[in-house]
Amino acid sequence: MTAETSVMTGNEAAAAAVKLARVQVIAAYPITPQSPVVEQLAAWVESGELPAEFVPVESEHSAMTVCIGASTVGARTFTATSANGLAYMTEQVWWAPGARLPIVMCIANRAMAAPWNVLNDQQDSMSVRDAGWVQLYCRNNQEILDTTVQAYRIAERLHLPVMVCYDGFLLSHTMMPVSVPDAADVDAFLPAFTGQLTIVDPADPRNIGPVTLADPRADAEGVLRPGYMEVRAFHQRALLDALEVIPEVDAAYGDAIGRSWGGLVWEHLMDDADVVLVAAGSLATQLTLAAEALRSEGIKAGVLGIRAYRPFPVAALRDRLGGRELALVFDKALSYGYEGPICSDLRGSLLGVEGAPAVFGAVCGLGGRDISPEQLTDSARRATADLRAGARTRATEWINLHTEAE
Amino acid sequence: MDAQREISMASPAVGEAGATGQWRNKRPVMDPALCLAAKAGRVTCQICWVHCPDGCIAQGASPVIDLTYCKGCGICAQECPADAIEMVAEALHGACEIDESGEAR
Predict the structure, then answer these.
(1) What is the CATH number of domain B27-105?
(2) ipTM over cut 0.90
């Protein structure tokens, strides 16, 4: 096991992982803050360092369509996007998992327009959480590299596409030391993809993804084929299987490369924690500082980081949150008209669980609004005070919001 | 179960999408007295065969429309240079009953 440590941005770490994964087809359209990923990959394809097809397309919709076509014939494929690019891609974002294609896509998380804003929050990927992809959120640049490599193994094992999400600018453009594993070690961990489900053979033609109506129906050979609802049930089953496969792959990566990231969720100071701070991505890293500050003043706080948001790790969360007093969830996104998506998912998963904590939500960092560990600590202080004053539910708090102009 | 069975994939074959003729509310009726191929007594013209989007017209003099799969789109009637194909409401063929006003019920 040899590795070389370089100082690189999150985008460069993602590109390095794609190269290590020996991706064969890359299609992408530029959008801030993702663009440097595919610019780096394009340079490597141009120089011959990465023997892949790079397909420049006129839109994100076409980028995903190219990945779908290439993956259908068995190629290992990659694309990356952000915010409105992901929204423009959305129709094909739904096609990839329904067709069970193991595409990997990096999302450099960015706020959705309007108004235009290129800075970080997680509204973009959260808005496609229901499309049936595996969604993994990274907390630093090393995790971006390692998770992107892992994503191919997860995707190809389950025939599911995987989104590797990382915070725009906060990670995508921030430089950190990253250990780049030896290519031979990654090859051993991630052999070439050979297991596509589709049959692509001119001598034995197939209609791939034909109209599939409500009920199961016999095909021309008299074999009963699944209806739409069965296809979706198989898809859902594969996503739930990912609850086992994501930790397995993370552990196997640990054996092969020497680093693991907690599988579905990760913890900091959780052993005796009464107050648990929950978030996904780099925000959860900031929360570790808040938890340490709270402990210095006598509040037993810990952090539970969400690594896998889809499938939602219900059992892992119940296991770690049972018996606590409070789960305070920080979302960098909002289901407009309701509350933060992680908050409502977490509350739902704990409903009826004996000894479940109260679940409070906070929204922060929208459109790149600064969020400091001190502000997170203050928010946790207020939540703890509300809890100790008897509150079991509470309206979503907006942190660092300036509405004095009202 | 074989994972390959979990996706939607089929071998192209006649009738793969089911008896789509059941979707039809008008059927094409060919008049051999007007059909150019029938009048020439050989396989010529075949414009209807070219345009049928479902491939359910067989070449011939005149061409033969497979009503098991014809969805009744009417493109053949529209394209026929001799106006030899008429789209006739299915009700008149007894697929459903028709009342005295001529409206299907």
Answers:
(1) 3.30.70.20
(2) no
